Amino acid sequence: MKSPNRSGQAKARLLGLAAAAMLLVPLAAAPACASNGLFVVFMPPGTDNYLAQWQKGARAKAKDLGYDIKIIESSRDQAEQDSQVQQEIASGEKVDGYIWWPYVNAAGTGSLRTLSKTGVPVVFTNQYPIAGTEKFWTAYAGVNDFLNAETAAKALVKACGESKTVKCDKGLIITFPAGYSAGSDRMKAFKKAATGLTVIQEHDAGFMAQEGYKTAAQIIPAHKSEISWVYTESDSLAEGVIQALKENGLHPGVDVLVVGGTCHGDTTNLLQGELIGSGIQAAYLEGWSSVQTAYKAVKNGKVIDGETYLPANTDKPPSDDGPVHRFNFIPNPWVGNTQADLDAFRLWGYGFKELCNY
Amino acid sequence: MVRRDTINELGIRAGFMLVVYLTFALQLPNYHTATGIAALLDGAVLIGTVSVGVGISMLAGEFDLSVGSLAALTGIIVVQAVGLGVFPAMLVGVAFAAVIGALQGLAIGILGVNSLVFTIGSLIGLRGLAMVISGENSVTIPIDHLDEIDFFTDRYFGIFSPLSLGMVAVFVLFGLFLRFTRWGREIYAIGGGRNEAKAAGVPLLRPMVIAFTCSGALAGLGGSVLSLRLGSATPLGFDTLLLSAATTCLIGGIALDGGRGNVIGIAIGLFTLRFFITGVASLGAPYYVQNLAAGALLILVIAGQIGFRALHRRRAFHRA
């Protein structure tokens, strides 16, 4: 039997494609299937590989739990996302839980507040909720950006201590786009944990390697004689930065230590020692755990104050039973930069390649 | 008097808009209820308001690329000035945006620079200014004060909010301005044929300044009201606004080379696009499908427009 979430998605794609082909014909209704309920997700577009993997994880978990899931993608514009929230609420659709991923966290507060007024559980995901919004959301599920950056900083400090070629002192921080709160959270946590390291410049870039390259190519020439490390918030950005470092005559891993702290699909830089290691921030597991948290919130009807880290089991995912906390973080383990390190890595039954394929 | 072929063309566009609406209304629960229509209207406010301004610059044979950046900048100014009160802050924001627009129109008119070239510069520069003023971060209305902007969601006659009523007022006022005032007709005149307008004694600078002032003020108004409703503004916001506004105008029959089209067409273009995008998004379609569908819609409308005009010319030729 065709699964409900797949049939809903297929229907939506069919509609869009049919419209694209100028065929404004009545659409076939999706086959009715028994469902335990519906989760609605508001998030930026899945054209980014990370977000696409997040969606796969969310869909897989919803299917596993017998729920339908509707993912409403916005452009990278908070006004558009707000409009979608208004429209969804106005639709009168019976929703069991909302999952909220704003593009710009602070700018999404108004929409989050609107969702909270429905009385339906709202699970915040991916970006750490900003202070003061606690009454507008039920639980947070996803990465701990502070821990992610702290892990990267500690790994860098350790690598600096062990390096025979680099004496770490001054360095650069290249971040996610301005206004993206996960980026500023990571930067703050990194600076706090990177003891003994001096930041000479911080610059926002984006999410992708080409954005990291573009920014790094502009600022590295002015600092190439003095930088000994670079923190980039993700390995994807690091890829572009490493390219810019090489073009400026520097050898990553030899002259300069580079850390991103969030893995991605291309392991070339990692295995060549140009990155000191990586953090496993699995997009798939974040989507998976967001839906599980929404399910637990609906099932239990109450949320325990405080935070919890989902267990970093190597072979199986966490149980659907048990309480839901206000903060439900996915594990963010560190992995070294050799093939043996990557091959040995397991989390919730998945290997490095399966979790870092974005 | 409005020409008969203009009425026919508007009728066809309106018919197409209804087809789009009905297609989704048959699929989506409550798409045709009062709450659903109210949400559709609210969702159209930003693009609708800005589209009128962009449409006016297009009618003048120009194009204002800076509307998204100006909306973002104005949003930041208004949110930062909200301590003055919601309406005074909006007034400050809109006045600022109107002055920026007027200066752009003045510069383009006096220097004779192509507006595309000039507004690429202001698009980048105003975005940079927004980054500077905001300190590269989102600016927000304090959470404890969000109750003060709840009136934006009040309802009148079941389907209107203060924002959607404001949008309707913008359409009516600017429609009347373009149709019945001398300054409005001058905008059409310089868009329809600059040399002919000059020969007929129409000044070039005044309509240029007015067109860009309207464009700037309406971008500022859109940015202000949306930022206030969201309770926040971000320097990188509204980056897709220009494309949406331009698409709305083109679907609504505003000619890229100026002088042809009207505000009713823009309204039809606005709702055709909003019904379409909102409908596709509400069904949970991926973002790329929304883009694909919007692009296809635009091509479909333009192809239909070309066909309609060719048919019209052919009939006119045979009649002659």
Report on the structure:
The complex is a heterodimer of chains A (358) and B (320). Chain A is of the alpha/beta class. Chain A has two domains: 35-143 and 282-330, Response regulator (Rossmann fold, 3-Layer(aba) Sandwich); 146-279, Rossmann fold, CATH 3.40.50.2300. Chain A has twelve helices and 15 strands. Chain A has a seven-stranded parallel sheet with strand order 2-1-3-4-5-12-11, sandwiched between helices. A four-stranded parallel sheet of chain A has the order 7-6-8-9, with helices on both faces. In chain A, helix 8 links the parallel strand 8 (227-231) and strand 9 (257-259). In chain A, helix 2 (49-65) packs parallel to helix 10, helix 3 runs parallel beside helix 4 (109-116) and helix 5 packs parallel to helix 6 (181-193). Mean pLDDT of chain A is 89; it is low at 1-7 and 16-32. Chain B is built from twelve helices and two strands. A two-stranded antiparallel ribbon of chain B has the order 1-2. In chain B, helix 2 (34-59) packs antiparallel against helix 9, helix 3 (67-80) packs parallel to helix 5 (115-134) and helix 6 packs across helix 7. The radius of gyration of chain B is 20 Å and the shape is globular.
